[in-house]
Amino acid sequence: MRRLLGESVRPYIGWIALAVFFMALMAGATAFSAWLMKPVFNDVLIGKNEELLWLVGGAVLVAFTVKGVANYAQSVLMSYVGMKIIADNQNRLFAHLSRMDLSFFHNNPTGTLISRFTIDINSMRSAVSNALTSLGKDFLSLVGLVIVMFIQEWQLAAISFFVFPIAVLPIARIGRRMRKVTANTQAETGLFMTLLEQTFQGIRIVKAYNMRDYEKSRVGTLIERIFRLTFKAARTRSLSSPIMETLGGVAVFVVIIYGGQRVISGQTDAGSIVSFIAALLLAYEPMKRLANLNASLQEGLAGAQRLFQVLDIEPGIQEKPDARDTRIEKGEIVLDDVYFSYVHGSPALSGVSLSVEAGKTVALVGASGAGKSTVLNLIPRFYEVNAGRVLIDGADVRDVTFTSLWAGIALVSQEITLFDDTIRANIAYGRAGASEEDIIEAARHAAAHDFISELPDGYDTVVGEQGIKLSGGQRQRLAIARAMLKNAPILLLDEATSALDTKSERQVQAALDELMRGRTTLVIAHRLSTVVHADLICVIDRGTLVEQGTHAELLALDGAYARLYALQFAEEEAHQAAQAAEV
pTM for the complete prediction? Predict the structure, then answer.
């Protein structure tokens, strides 16, 4: 709670103070309207004092007007504070998550992270708004009404409020239960959002494998668990109502019996009792809200706890305090005796040493899972080496800032990432502020301009989530255009042409050849025919660099590369023969 107030609420203390002023004004108007019941009853209704009729009536009108205006002002101010707290924490959480390394996102489902932005932060806002409003408006109103009650009948007030401390213990227990139930509900909701996201993204597989009933069962089970937890929370929250209703009934019972006897015996006047009862009834609602405050507050604290748990996780890969900006010019890459493991005890790379001269093209080949993509991921420092060094232009990538490192590297992966935006925006993602001419030129080089021009909205076509409205080849060409526009000195190509047909592959390969000229390029390709002209071909097997040389040199060795090439050449011949037979 201290952290929530210190980090989220303190910046808006001025707005809150102004809101508290209006809350105090509202509380005063409420208490004043209860006090007016005595002259209304004694002087106007019983005493029939016509002179006071307009005066007292006008005072009641002013009291209610002030109460309404003050309530509006404090409500607007508290809404502003609550919504700003949401916005601030969402910005803060996004900024923090954007610093996290790839392994964090691999270990935390997207739906669970999204639930932090929505459910958890919204529950925090509700808790803060409700807490401040109740502690301000309700507490001040209650104080004002209690003062009126003690002014009118102090003995009666003391007797009436004697019963309410009894409610403290059960209400505190209700709050503890609410926090636990809410934390469980938020965790299950995060899993639910993850499951929905995975199901919708994989809807083709769900349908193709006829797994709709299975997915309905999984979703239904989660919905049932969330329903039970939500219902339990509602049931727990509602427990405070019978407690307060019963105690309120006891208080009113005491007032009627004891106050009635005092009026009958002539110890007090009826107006005082009427004013007292009015104040007691007006105090009952803020008292109930204060009783419910603990439960609402615990819900918000559960969300705050889950938020702070994420904010307290430090990225596994961080910049050094003295990291310097670098400008990659030549693009020379060196891997010096590199060891790396995704999972402890299971090495992905073991003692890999590789030197890529500036402006040269190096191809990484080998079986799936051999470690080729791992090498690519270590160069932009998406992962941290366990031992050894990765150098670019002689500088260890651990000694330079992320921003300057990434500025000199362009990546095209087989895992195509497009945003639900226009084609123009997706290509321009490669260079902020790029001109229309530059975007179109990049698309031409990537063999994408022709199909873009044929779309109804051209470059303004919205591609959908992950480019779902485009074919695989079209998505790949947009990714290549994005890399071309960036025009970085280092180019990383991970199966960049894997989704293209033969004609488009020739077009894109020609454009890539032009793009790679004068740039340091690392290429991963399963089709060896696309890398035979590379300056250096490196064969990786089970995390180890087993061979390196030109295409001709490796064939002459008659080793791992020669076997891969012969196997692939035989498969291509068989495929061509099958096609010829069909014709």
Answer: 0.74
